[in-house]
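worker-3 :: picked Trichome birefringence-like C-terminal domain-containing protein
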Amino acid sequence: MELELKKLCSSLGMCIKNWKVDGDQANRRYILLGTFAVFLLGSLWLVTLESRDPYLMSMPWSDFFPYGTPTIAENPMTNSTEEPVIKATYLKGKKAVEQFRNHLACFSESGKWVYDTTPRHMPWNSIGDTYASGCDSRHQWTGPGHVSGDQAEAIAMEGDPKDWLVREELKWVWRTNSSCTFWPVDRDDFCKRIGPKRNVMVVGDSINHEIAWSFMNHLVLSGQGYGHMSSGDRSNDGVYEMCGDIFGAGNGFKVAFVRNDRLSPVANISVDTWRNFYEWPWLDLLKEYDVRLLLLNRGAHYEDDKTFVRALRLIFTILSEHFPHMQVIFRNTPPGHANCSFYHEPLSERQHSDLPHGYHWEDFYRQNKLAAEIVKEFQYMYMDVDTMLSLRPEGHITDTDCLHYCLPGPLDLAVQYLYNILLLL
Ligand SMILES: *[C@@H]1O[C@H](CO)[C@@H](O)[C@H](O)[C@H]1NC(C)=O
Ligand SMILES: *[C@@H]1O[C@H](CO)[C@@H](O)[C@H](O)[C@H]1NC(C)=O
Ligand SMILES: *[C@@H]1O[C@H](CO)[C@@H](O)[C@H](O)[C@H]1NC(C)=O
Ligand SMILES: *[C@@H]1O[C@H](CO)[C@@H](O)[C@H](O)[C@H]1NC(C)=O
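worker-3 :: tokens ->
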């Protein structure tokens, strides 16, 4: 019987023909019934989907973080009679909060890129990421003909400013006006501003991965450090102690990175290579690692505005309900650049036209504005690096990757921004 069916169905056409010609009444009835059942189940499924939140609907079919599906807070501040605050900081009251936000805005609005060839320390000594240092033959962390550690440090710290030997894109600094001086990172002070055992987690896409790497590079001492960060295997992250030299071994803090392009509260790994979304669970680790400072981003892996807004509201709702004592900073998303390898210095104005299609770079500016509003509603901190980095077409990795940056490089600005936020807290 089975053999016979196989033979019959050897081609679809044959199969259909055979059912029609030879199939008995019973078979036809089963097929009819089956089709009807599938139709019914399908409709039920669609009705269930329709009644779900559109953002939740687009989530991968894995179960949510144990807290369950929350009711997304629409506008958490609208009816609040409480004073505005910046959550988990001492900043409280309309005036203090406004001052803080204006100070951050001033970093962007009053600043410009200035060429400065004064030799100085650069955060490239210890940790290597071969992709991000690929464009740098002089300071790549390892390999023949490249230098690292003390040798790299010597190049950065010495020399005649006229012919300072570092890559061109490392010579530009963001200079703001005197109302909001944008300080260079002082490593020891950075450690202290974060504080003993105040563990840090960075969650987001590959750009946040680069920032996490740069962050650790700013903190580790020469000769310390470890090989390579992995976005997949979480066992490598969050286990390295930073600033133990300042606080005493065992009292430093840890820095973890988790890749989650949508900041989704998934409980299981979801990899959608077709749409290019990598989502690792991370909410469980906030507790496990006792995270006190969280740096988030989503944006470069584009989804439409409605989905984007829902995603942010959802995750901020969960965070404010379950982690009220955690400081949260949301970094915005700078676009990549058209023809990046043709540029050798910063732009005076962001690129508006001729952006390559397909990446939605032209949509980032609009979505950043949406994000800024939501971050404000939830009383978190907003880090605008787009204003600065949209002006940095140079220093990207290759002419086929005009989104990521070489490290050290322009993206180190995000770490400097973090330091400057901490100076205000
Ligand atoms: C998610 O992971 C948990 C345990 O880690 C497992 O019990 C559950 O079946 C998984 N769910 C899905 C949809 O894979
Ligand atoms: C604000 O108050 C109005 C009227 O009392 C109510 O309908 C609405 O749901 C409240 N919104 C929030 C976010 O609590
Ligand atoms: C600095 O720039 C900000 C924002 O553009 C402006 O509000 C402020 O008045 C400026 N301060 C000085 C001292 O020029
Ligand atoms: C990039 O290069 C192409 C081809 O040379 C040119 O048509 C386009 O205008 C350039 N775009 C920008 C933003 O420079």
